[in-house]
Write a structure and sequence with these properties.
By secondary structure, the protein is an alpha+beta fold. The chain folds into two domains: 261 residues, Neutral Protease, domain 2 (Orthogonal Bundle); 220 residues, tricorn interacting facor f3 domain (Immunoglobulin-like, Sandwich). The chain is built from ten helices and 22 strands. The strands form five sheets. The chain has an eight-stranded mixed beta sheet with strand order 5-4-8-2-1-13-16-15, with no helix packed on it. Strands 18-19-20-22-21 form a five-stranded mixed beta sheet. It has a four-stranded antiparallel beta sheet with strand order 9-10-17-14, with no helix packed on it. The radius of gyration is 22 Å and the shape is globular. The two termini are 24 Å apart. The structure holds zinc ion. The site of zinc ion (ZN) has 7 residues, from α6.
Length: 532
């Protein structure tokens, strides 16, 4: 996510920059429409040894149980459909990922969704589990929407459940403790109410005249790490979701006039009267994002075998093409600097969000008002590049966005500087850094005192969160780069991306990468900019 106040600040400051340091204006170029062909639906699916591999953190791997065969539910799709062919084996990187098989039926005006899902969850912790938690972010306080889980079943048995954390957490009590390495199969039904013209949480869960945006609206299992289950209620600013890479198989039925823009790949489309059913596979992805629209247009471009789609309102067509070009350039730059984007597709979507933009696996959203205001071109490009960078850091390499938001946000802010440096030269990047990061950090330091950039989001208020995590945090990366040089710096980031693909990274993992690549101790820089 990039926060609105940050990019307004950016706009003001760049507006004050000398002409020589101004960012060049990009002329939109017509881009040929390249629609991806639907892959054939083929046989399954799971890596052949999926059933027998031990859970990675299991203390007694011998306890690993085969996945149960559930009659009538054998997956019949290629779970590697989301991946570029050369990365199809990425499905094997993480063992025993959770599998979500979901079916959603929308009513005519998209105000209600009847949902059901089956979740196959392997206990990858180091001890038996008495319960499994789900997050219900559609119930976030004052958001206007809600999700009501009607039942949770295991086999023939209804399981006891309870709501916690202002109804954003569903605790499911298992009938018997789930041994390490064993698998639970849970089924549940739910109803989701989609709020109209909602403004809460950056207006990210809302139904408007031109788009319905549905971020993490289904019951999702949170990450379980050294602190246990992550069931905390994050503050009203910052990102919500901390979860593991999983396998999603999602069937969506909606009135036929709507296009569905979602994480992953659409593998089937069946029209039945005035309703259309579409099936998506997203794997390995740590969330599943959905948007529906009957008004917006799409333009697409290819970079290698990656399709980048830009969805925009017709009146913002020029901006939609502009954003597509920036997104393609950003993918090119980040592939070169950090490593390959593994998925076939990336969707860039104009939305009514009041953040500058928000990231989801395979989908990035950017605020509509940036599309509409020619005076905000710099902020528009910044937000686009920032959200695309999150595909590397947050989506593919995961982290605790709630308690260690700097690990993706500060890095992504720095990656955005790298994008500007690559596209427009070092002077432009330096101007951005001084006028944007440095100035905002200094202003916040005077106001709040010098706060660490490495705190949980709940330790800040919204303004200080932006200033210290997004403006001070990236200065750590500049300091490391200045100390160890470009070669070691980018080698470390490529190593970090490769080593923690589809996993959860901790700050120490990144620090170790820098130290390994350079042979230098960067702890003092970490203490100075992140921990100090
Ligand atoms: Zn962000």
């Amino acid at each position: 996510m990039v926060r609105r106040s940050l990019i307004i600040f950016l706009l003001a400051l760049i507006g004050c920059a000398t002409p020589a340091a101004s960012l060049p204006t990009v002329t939109p170029q017509p881009t040929p429409l390249v629609l991806p062909a639907l892959p054939p639906v083929g046989p399954t699916i799971l890596p052949s040894d999926y059933n027998t591999r031990p859970a990675p953190r299991a203390t007694q791997a011998a306890n690993a149980q085969p996945l149960p065969v559930v009659p009538g539910t054998t997956p019949s799709v290629n779970f590697d459909s989301t991946l570029r062919p050369q990365f199809a084996q990425d499905l094997n990187i993480v063992n025993n990922e959770t599998i979500y098989t979901m079916a959603w039926n929308f009513n005519d005006d998209l105000s209600e969704i009847q949902g059901s899902q089956r979740v196959i969850f392997a206990n990858r912790t180091d001890h038996p589990l008495d319960e499994i938690y789900f997050r219900l972010f559609a119930n976030y306080p004052d958001g206007g929407g809600n999700i009501k889980v009607q039942n949770v079943r295991s086999g023939e048995n209804n399981l006891e459940t309870s709501l916690e954390q202002s109804d954003t957490t569903l605790r499911v009590q298992l009938r018997h403790p789930l041994p390490v390495g064993s698998v639970a199969v849970l089924r549940m039904d739910y109803v989701i109410q989609v709020p109209r013209d909602a403004q809460a949480r950056y207006a990210d869960f809302t139904r408007t005249d031109w788009i319905t945006t549905l971020p993490t609206i289904y019951p999702i299992i949170p990450a379980y790490d050294a602190q246990g289950w992550h069931t905390e209620l994050p503050p009203s600013f910052g990102d919500l979701v901390y979860s593991d890479s999983s396998i999603y198989d999602v069937t969506i039925t909606a009135p036929s006039q709507y296009n569905v823009i979602a994480s992953g790949e659409m593998i089937q489309e069946t029209k039945n009267g005035d309703r259309t059913t579409r099936r998506f596979v997203a794997a390995p992805m740590r969330d599943f994002d959905v948007n529906l629209t009957d008004r917006m247009k799409r333009t697409s471009a290819r970079l290698d075998d990656i399709t980048v789609n830009s969805w925009y309102r017709e009146e913002n067509a020029e901006a939609g093409v502009r954003a597509l070009n920036w997104a393609v350039d950003a993918v090119r730059v980040f592939q070169e600097k950090f490593g390959p984007y593994p998925f076939k597709e990336l969707d860039l979507v104009e939305t009514p969000t009041t953040a500058g933009g928000i990231e989801y696996p395979g989908v990035v959203t950017v605020a509509s008002d940036l599309y509409q205001d020619p005076a905000q071109l710099n902020a528009f490009e910044f937000a686009t590049a920032h959200e695309v960078a999150h595909q590397w850091f947050y989506s593919v390499v995961g982290n605790d966005q709630v308690n260690r938001p700097w690990l993706d946000e500060a890095l992504v802010q720095y990656a955005t500087l790298v994008y500007f440096e690559t596209q427009y030269g070092k002077d432009v990047a330096r101007t951005l850094q001084q006028n944007y990061f440095d100035a905002q950090y200094e202003a916040a330091r005077k106001r709040y005192g010098d706060m660490s950039a490495g705190l949980p989001s709940s330790a800040y208020i919204e303004e200080s969160y932006g200033a210290f995590v997004y403006a001070k945090g990236p200065k750590f990366f500049q300091a490391v780069r200045d100390k160890i040089g470009d070669e070691a710096f980018f080698k470390a980031l490529r190593g970090y991306y490769e080593a923690y693909k589809y996993r959860i990274a901790e700050p120490k993992d990144l620090i170790e990468m820098f130290q390994k690549a350079s042979g230098q101790d960067i702890t003092p820089l970490y203490v100075r900019w992140i921990g100090g």
